[in-house]
Amino acid sequence: MNDAAFNEMRKEVETCARCPLAANRTRAVFGEGPETTSIVLVGEAPGAKEDESGRPFVGLSGRLLSELLEEAGLPREKLFITNTVKCRPPENRLPSKTESAACRQFLAAQLRHIRPRLVITAGNAPTRAVLGTKEGISTLRGRLRSCVWEEMEFSVLPLFHPSYLLRNRGRAEGSPIALTLADIREALRLAREFTPGF
Ligand code: SF4
After folding, report:
1. Is the model's pLDDT at 160 over the cut of 90?
2. Rg of the Cα trace of the chain?
3. Which of 12, 81, 104, 119 has its C-alpha lying 20 to 30 A from 129's C-alpha?
């Protein structure tokens, strides 16, 4: 996909009505960040602030994750950030299987265009979507996996969902935040290994 086609897809997402989530959204959240990066961060779904602004990870939990990325030396501006579904589910419920399936083509096309070496998944929904597993995030977080998804190969590093981090703000050794910081540092180490100078 060339840059023009990528921008066309952005417009397509903004007006998409392929699933019921279109009915209640204010703005679709396509995602943002450099299209040449080695790392894509995939969250679950837009929340209220994201729906309002059209930008990913700008609500309370997204801001916390952005702060942790910065603290670990991997500022969000270096990543492309998006979600498994591009429109906000009502009451912030999990996207249904039908909604996730309808939106899958957009995530697949984004990854096909960006060609990341590493995909960081934040929370259960994106981790399960990409790895095709039923295992939970508490088992999977911090465990690097190689993955073939939609005929693309990349590594996957799952993180705790940022809303879980928001409810567990302690920073003691072994705490969710301390583990997440260690996971992000590992992601940075891998990105530098994949792309010298990252
Ligand atoms: Fe389209 Fe995805 Fe929004 Fe559903 S969630 S309307 S498939 S962009």
Report:
1. yes
2. 16
3. 12
